[in-house]
Design brief:
homodimer, 325 residues, Nucleotidyltransferase, domain 5, 2 domains, five-stranded mixed β-sheet, 47% helix, Euk-type_GlcNAc_Kinase (chains A, B), ATPase_NBD (chains A, B)
């Protein structure tokens, strides 16, 4: 058995091939293949990693059992249509049966990584934030994931924007003092905080870069800054509300479901504790898993692939994979 | 006497010339001359309107008493240096004594338009928001004006972003239902609200365009939508907090100062009532003026010019000017 799992995002397309014993047979990367790009750019990124994987392993297309693609941005009808078109064309070009190709939103991949396919909810908080759940009837619901402009409450991008706002309010005297004022001055190398306006509005902001400010917030919070602590606590509550909302819509409030956080924001002790607290109070029978942080993004499409060929996976398997990926 | 008042923003540079009796002698426009542009672009915009005004009136540079420029974005040290450089060069090119040229932040211009130069605070809420105050000792303070990414609480841009967020929360089930969901679907011509993601993230957002959503919020609020009402009330409170903060920093909490709102957001009855309520409670001796809405942006540089030549202006003069501008 050979499966190829792909994670295709804005900046990178990563792929691994896995055998029966869940050994990683190859690991390759190409440029970004997120759905914001043209069909040809995406197609090339996907083709490149698949062809390179086959070359490394010395296999042919017929030897592959499943190819699973996890896609960021697969939010709207327009993107679903685009993704289907690309997958159909990919099947034609590499001459593989369409039935061997699966794709889904990277939030669904995260859901699989957290729950191994059991009823439950995964809450993802990296640069953006989204919750995705599936109940015993296979029904799905999502919450948040509206991007940095509209929402993504609790994400690193959201924490960064909250921090900038809190610092501006402190500077003006409209809000409580916070050590973020000085941290942000240092970070942006300005003498007067107001001069960050030159940096922020010179060109359209890139939320991926701004999101890094969340690390400063975490550091200041651990150092005792009350404003930073409150931002992180609010992040934890928003992320938990996300999970609870999904559970409610799927009729799982009183079910023994699996709930877990995924992504860098959960590395904050404060976020994580607040998240657990709200989940425990609202979803009393839920099993809250330890957050998945680090290189988990390929775990989802791997489990999606295994589920396509009806192969069960255990928590021990996941631990093995997480070490190898 | 002839004064020329200029208002130089991102999309337009407007100018009027005024005589002794405050008659408008000419009115001209050119392309934007905001400080985000290159020196030459700004210089050309300023030169064009000044030269055109002189041509219309049939006067020479020597006949001009004052030229006052009101500039958006004059927030940071870098922009102050740029503006000074441009004004010095402008004086050289049109051969006018540097002392006849004045320039300032458009928030200062708004302050003059509201207070006629008396101690007080102007709170501006258009696309962005800022409060600017001056006390009896001539000391200045500002609050907010951090732009749509960081703050600008209470502005039309802020109201628009709050509305998008509230609609997303209602759609998910994370927040109370709001009629904004359907208004935004109609506005963006999408069947499913989630499809606004295609619109919002296809290219960098322009806050000037987004800010127009504030009108929908006002309409839904007047139609009874509780979520919209709360957004506008919060806007009013934030704008009032802005004024109170400035008054506090200038030691004017218990002084008989003039406080007034400027800009399109104050055309909302709900914003305006909430603003007045907080101001009356916090600045008990303040005289709250009726908001200046509409074509007030040249009033500031006109009053700045008159103040430069020590000419007093009355509220009757202002009413006359507001009708003519």
């Amino acid at each position: 058995m050979v499966i190829i799992a792909l994670d295709s995002g804005k900046t990178k397309t990563n792929a691994v091939a896995i055998d029966d014993s869940l050994n990683v047979l190859c690991r390759v990367s190409d440029r970004g293949g997120g759905l914001i790009y043209s069909d040809e750019v995406i197609m090339n990124a996907l083709m490149n990693v698949i062809v390179e994987c086959m070359r490394v392993m010395g296999i042919r297309v017929n030897d592959i059992d499943v190819i699973a693609v996890s896609w960021a941005d697969l939010d709207t009808e327009a993107y679903w249509i685009k993704a289907s078109r690309i997958i159909n064309e990919l099947a034609r070009r590499i001459n593989i049966p369409r039935s061997k190709l699966v794709f889904d939103h990277d939030a669904v991949a995260a859901y699989y990584a957290v729950t191994l396919g059991e009823p439950g909810v995964a809450v993802i908080a990296g640069t953006g934030a989204i919750a995705l759940g599936v109940n015993a009837r296979g029904e799905r619901a999502r919450s948040s994931g509206w991007g940095w402009l509209i929402g993504d409450e609790g994400s690193a991008g959201w924490i960064a924007l909250k921090a900038l706002n809190a610092a501006s309010r402190a500077y003006d005297g409209r809000g409580p003092w916070t050590s973020l004022v000085n941290r942000l001055k240092d970070y942006f190398k300005v003498k007067d905080l107001l001069s960050i306006l030159d940096v922020m509005y010179a060109e359209p902001p890139e939320i991926d870069k701004l999101a890094k400010l969340a690390i400063l917030v975490s550091e200041e919070a651990e150092g005792g800054d009350e404003v930073s602590v409150n931002i992180l606590k609010e992040a934890g509550r928003e992320l938990a509300l996300n999970a609870v909302t999904v559970a409610k819509r799927l009729g799982m409030i009183n079910e023994s479901i699996v709930v877990g956080g995924v992504g860098s924001v959960f590395s904050s002790r404060i976020v994580n504790e607040e998240f657990r607290k709200v989940i425990s109070n609202s979803l009393v029978k839920a099993k809250v898993k330890e957050p998945l942080i680090g290189n988990y993004s390929l775990l989802g499409p791997i489990i999606m692939s295994l589920s396509r060929i009806n192969k069960k996976i255990t928590n021990t398997d996941v631990e093995k994979l997480l070490k190898e990926l």
